[in-house]
Amino acid sequence: MKDLSRRSLTGVVYILLMLAGAAVHPLLFALVFGSFLFLTQLEFYQLVETAGNSPRKNTGLTLGVLFFIICFGMVNNILPAKSYLIFIPALLFIFLFEAFSERSGILQNSAVTFTGFVYVAIPFSLLNFMVHPGYPNFPVFNSKVLIGVLFIVWTYDSMAYLFGSNFGKHKIHKKISPNKSWEGCIGGSIFALIMGAINSLLFKDISITSWIVVSLLVIVFGTLGDLFESTIKRRLNVKDSGTILPGHGGLLDRFDSLLFVIPVVYVWLNLSGNL
Hints:
Elements: H1 2-23, H2 26-49, H3 57-75, H4 87-90, H5 92-99, H6 106-130, H7 144-167, E1 171-173, E2 177-181, H8 182-202, H9 208-236, H10 251-271
Antiparallel strand pairs: 1-2
Helix pairs in contact: 1-2, 2-3, 2-6, 3-6, 5-6, 6-10, 7-8, 7-9, 8-9, 9-10
């Protein structure tokens, strides 16, 4: 009972932080999601270190946070529209640091450092554009789309867990994630689609068709994101990515599906003219 209460309290605080960061003010958004980016990327680097890798944590974290800040500056008209281009040469510094170091495993360490940036920093940074759907013509802070996406992700994850715990018999992949079942996936998918339809009533900036497509993307890529992180943990022989969230594990455990969902939803919303 104590563990359940702790898990529930942690979950409530986590959700409230996410919603407050998404809805209250651009500066609070930057503080909340910038902090999540830093802590999640750091957790990834600490996780891969257990396998003997030596990522350039300071370099990777600095680039990750800086990229988030640049994107924030762009959508708020503080920085020029193409400021992100400085990261093309900046990313080369990851490899230069390794090349001039005395440590072995230059390519491997550079690849792991770069992976942390791509896997964590880029999805979090794209959120800046998701909460400024009119950028660059009308860069006004509007978090309705992001909140709707979060609702779908949380609904899918929660209902998949509930259905999987009670009815799960057929495993999606026994070796990678023995707790994930097709029954859980189907149950979560049904409620994710329902949540997408509800979003069309709550957030009318996007049509019901687009919300259904977003729900389908969440189902597919949320599952892939979950399995990807499970694969990493399985190969490193660890249960949780960290301990920062009592009763839930690490931040990477909470964001694993969202990190895959954000880029594909962002691309879809752009291509469909909803951003």
